[in-house]
Amino acid sequence: MNENSPILPNIPWEDRPTGCDDIVWRYSANPIIPRNLTKTSNSIFNSAVVPFKGKFAGVFRCDNKKREMNIHNGRSDDGIHWHIEDDPIEWVTNDPELSHFEHRYDPRVTWLEDRYYVTWCNGYHGPTIGIGYTYDFEKFHFIENAFLPFNRNGVLFPRKINGNFYMLNRPSDNGHTPFGDIFVSESPDMVHWGRHRHAMGTKGGWQSTKIGAGPVPIETSEGWLLFYHGVLTSCNGFVYSFGAALLDLDEPWKVIYRGGSYLMSPQTLYECVGDVPNVAFPCATLYDQPSGKIAIYYGGADTVTGLAFTTLPEVMQFLKDNDDK
Ligand code: BMA
């Protein structure tokens, strides 16, 4: 099985609209996943998608009508139209401690060596990062909680670096955290995490309150391309936008470029109006190396899932032209 191919000719795609100068543009039929796609869902957003057997699979954040936060399995032929299971993923584990359920949300999925790893924000006496895996999107195995609470936005690099696993993460608090920098942590076995290194702190404007890793980084010849969210505190509350940075291939806590401007901020109705207004929160990308096409999946207003597009050469040029490291 080689799901690691950088060739994805069936990547969901729509050309940049005429007259649009933005580096990242939205799919015209957004949102692709409405809040009530499943019988039980109050909202479906901040979700992860990967190529799977010539089609697509994903892990979706579905808040149910009790307003419990959980993650569900989904499939799609084209990456746009999705079938999402009504019931949450059941995690296989022999450790009763790992059956403890508080909440599960904001999943990321990456193909790494021989399987799909899933990371998510897992409640274990407060938010931390849960790690599990699946081979087939049918059976899901829970490995461990990576950190002590409180931590969010745990995102694996899609291959080992110098023999070890690496994960971006964001130490936080137990609430709506008014601070937060991105760190990189290392592990020999996916269970024990250490050698924590500070990668990126907050900056002005759109990323002044806190930042957090978004989709699994994309490997390029010049570095790891990371899309990340940034939060500004307005007189009306948090505003979640996203931008990009390029991280060193071998020492991924070292930032090579960091875009000063956001690439997307909440501007459409489905990003500005919903359960939490003014949120554009990316959790996954698809990438087709030959064409450079990138499709970005992001949550809108903590309510629906949208799709946006860009290309690798354009984001790289943006980072070089707008570097504000
Ligand atoms: C963060 C996370 C995200 C959410 C965002 C805005 O702390 O909970 O899931 O999209 O807040 O509410």
Give the % helix: under 10%
**How many β strands by DSSP?**
22
Through-space gap between termini:
39 Å
Round the mean pLDDT to the nearest integer and report it.
97
- What is the general shape? globular
In the sheet with the most strands, the strands line up as 6-10-9-8-7
**Any low-confidence stretches, pLDDT <50, length ≥5?**
none
| Strand percentage | over 45%
| Rg of Cα set | 18 Å
| List of distinct ligands in this structure | beta-D-mannopyranose
Count of separate DSSP helical elements: 2
Give the biggest sheet. 5 strands, mixed
Structural class: mainly beta
The ordered string of helix (H) and strand (E) elements is EEEEEEEEEEEEEEEEEEEHEEEH
